Amino acid sequence: MCEVCGCANPYRPGARLAPAVAPKAGTLHFGMGPAGVEVAGLSQSRVIEIQEDILGRNDSIAARNRVAFAGAGVLALNLVSSPGSGKTTLLVETLTKLAGAQPVAVIEGDQQTDFDAERIRATGAPAIQVNTGRGCHLDATMIERALEKLPVPANGVLFIENVGNLVCPSGFDLGEAHKVVVLSVTEGEDKPLKYPDMFAAADLMLLTKIDLLPHLRFDVERCCVFARQVNPAIEIIRVSSVSGEGMADWLSWIEQHRPRAAPLVPAAAKHRAWRTPA
Predict the structure, then answer these.
(1) Angle of helix 87-98 relative to helix 247-257, nearest 10 degrees?
(2) Phi/psi zone of residue 32: left (φ > 0), alpha (ψ -120 to 50 degrees), beta?
(3) pTM of the full predicted structure?
(4) pLDDT 10s digits, 92-129
(5) Strands 204-208 and 235-238
(6) What is the pLDDT of residues 17-53, one digit of tens each?
(7) Distance of CA 222 to CAs 191, 238, 246, 272, 277, Å?
(8) How many CA atoms lie within 13 A of 143 on its CB side?
(9) Is residue 161 a contact partner of residue 119, using CB atoms and an 8 Å limit?
(10) b/e map 50-89, b = 16+ CB within 10 Å
(11) In the chain, N or C terminus with fewer CB closer than 10 Å?
C-alpha cells in the first residue's frame, strides 16, 4: 500500500525524519535514498515529487481541521498502533471513565467493518466509522468529511482511532494536537527501533496490557530506553485496561493537555531525529 499512496516515508521539505540506518552485512535496505523508499520504475526525485504533492494537499486540509478544533476548544488525539495492541479496548475503558465528565466523540478508522464503532457507541459516546478500503491510514480529508456527520465535541475531546499500522499514519497530519502511540507488551520491546518514524512523531506512548507482564519476557525498561532513543521528549504511561493500573495517569494526561488543544503547529514539525544503539 505504501507504494500506491506514496506514504512509505513521510517526506516533507525541512522535516526532521528518522534517518536511514547503514545496512549490515546480509541486509538489503531499500530506504537509503533521499525518498526513503524505492518504487519500481520511478526515480528518487520523482518519488519525492509525488510525496510532496500528496502530503502538501493533505496538510492544507489538516490545517483547516486544526482551526476548527481550536475554534471549538477541542483536544484532538490521534491514536496510532499496530493491530491487536488493545487500542479499542483502552479507548472503551477511557470513554467509560470519562462519561459525564466532559464532551467526547470518536472517529474510528479501519479498512472494513464497523465493529469498533459499535463498541464505542455502546459506551454512550457518539462515533462514526471510517472505512478506508485498501487504504492503510486515515488522512485529513477523511477526518474533514467525518466531521460533517460527527460535530466536534465543544470544549471536549475527540479521539481519532487510526487504522492499525505502525508505518503510514506517522506521516499524515490529521489536524490533531497529539499523536498517541499505543504499544502492547505482547509485541516486543524493540518496536520503537523497528518503526522509528511512528515513535518520533508521537508525543505520548501508552504501554498497554501490563497486567500480562508476569507471563511474558518483555523488558519494560529496555522498551522505554528504545522509545526515548528515537524520541527523547516522548512521555510514557504504563496502563492496563483490565486491572485499571495507569488509567488515572492517562486520564490526568488528557486533562492536563485540554487547555492546549490543537496548537496551530504543523505535525511535520514534530518529527525528531534519532539514532540506533552503538
Answers:
(1) 70
(2) alpha
(3) 0.83
(4) 999 999 998 999 999 999 999 999 999 999 999 999 99
(5) parallel
(6) 454 456 666 776 666 677 566 777 778 787 666 666 6
(7) 11, 14, 19, 20, 12
(8) 32
(9) no
(10) bbeebbeebbebbeebbebbbebbbbbbbbbbbeebbbbe
(11) C
Burial of 141 (0-12, 13-18, 19+ CB in 10 A): middle
